[in-house]
Amino acid sequence: MSTRIAKPAARMRKQPRQARSIATVEAIIEAGAHVLSELGWAGFSTNKVAEAAGVSIGSLYQYFPDKLALVEAIRRRHFDHVLSVIREASAEAKPLRQFARELVRGMIGAHSIHPTLHQVLLDEAPGDRGSRAVHASFQARYLEHYAAAVAQYRRRRKDTETMARVLSSAVEGVIHNAARRNMLDTPELQKQLVELISAYLSGSRAT
Amino acid sequence: MSTRIAKPAARMRKQPRQARSIATVEAIIEAGAHVLSELGWAGFSTNKVAEAAGVSIGSLYQYFPDKLALVEAIRRRHFDHVLSVIREASAEAKPLRQFARELVRGMIGAHSIHPTLHQVLLDEAPGDRGSRAVHASFQARYLEHYAAAVAQYRRRRKDTETMARVLSSAVEGVIHNAARRNMLDTPELQKQLVELISAYLSGSRAT
DNA sequence: ATGAATGTGAGTATCCTGTTCATATTCTCG
DNA sequence: CGAGAATATGAACAGGATACTCACATTCAT
User: Fold this and answer.
1) What is the pTM of this model?
2) B9: pLDDT confidence band, cut at 50, 70 and 90?
3) Torsion region of B204: left, alpha or beta (phi above 0 gives left; psi -120 to 50 gives alpha)
4) Which residues touch strand D (CB under 7 A)?
5) What is the SS3 assignment for A203?
6) Which residues of A touch B41 (CB under 8 A)?
7) CB environment A138-154: b (16+ within 10 A), e (fewer)
8) Is the CB of A202 under 7 A from strand C?
9) Cβ(B32)–Cβ(B70) under 8 Å?
């Protein structure tokens, strides 16, 4: 009865071994993302998540030791996704406008399933213990990619980091706002966002 | 007993008549804004607000019939403030760059006391009953001012509204992000935000 | 077939929350 | 001064929600 549970990959109480349990864990994480995006942190309760996943609350606690471990798993998955999108857009050298288009397309894609998950994760969901590290590391790499893009299309070496910050938060702001209004797939908006990015990185000077 | 209470400014249980009670109400609203910004909607409890205001919970309920009436009062005050900032920045005709500078300065000022209040109000705080109207009216006038500015510095009549939406949410995104990192008063950032606005409204065309 | 893996969900033990009310203090004004 | 009105107090209440456990049932791998 006092079997030592060695060192699970994530902070898990038990490692899913069969296909059935893997699907269960996946369903829980997915439902968690849904609840988090739909109801915010305030409405994120383990019972609600279990119900949304079509799984008993007991099953949830079979794999996640507590609520925060679950948020952590959701966070990890989402951040990985977003990161891969930016990495891909800023990968090889390409014309500015194409970069902007790919970035917009990718970011919108990453937000279209759980529109407000990203913001909730950043703003509301608590980040204590070890998750602070995950968070910081994500932010760092996130900015890095933006900075790389900025450096590529802008000569000035000076304000690269600040520009990356401004650009990323501007993009996030537009997408977040569009998500709130269910306008994520409005082509007009996508176009204008591409325009915004291009204009900023082109750097017109008009005093 | 049937004295006409002239104009209950907000939905109040009782109208403050003496200087003392007016100060109390003000303190409650101010503390409410603080709690809302600091702890989010999830941490916004009437008892906490009363304590933060240095006032007993009973006093709070002397003037606000319920929790939502309090949020409503906070919302009204904040929205009025923000609206006045934009109105002022987009008032008379002035060079694009000056408009951008004034807008940035004003918006940062409006966010520097309760950095995340704006976002919490928009994203988390519930808006049912009559407050939906307040909210919508605010959004409408908010966008109107941005649209006016866009129309002034851009020839094309076509995408004015979309551009206003993009511009406003981009600015909000940058400011919100800066607020989260306590970078609101970083001059570099302010400068780059001005740059972003100018660049977008100048409209460099680079295919 | 047998033990391990997986799934169940009513139940528990807190913890909070919004709100009231009987009472105390302070003000206004004749 | 003093009387009634305005203002302030905070313990208490009633109710709900929450995270999490556990004893047991079901399904799998071998």
Assistant:
1) 0.91
2) low
3) beta
4) A 18-20, 43-48, 57-58, 61, 66-67; B 14-18, 20-21, 23-24, 55-59, 61-62
5) coil
6) 40, 42
7) beeebbbbbbebbeebb
8) no
9) yes
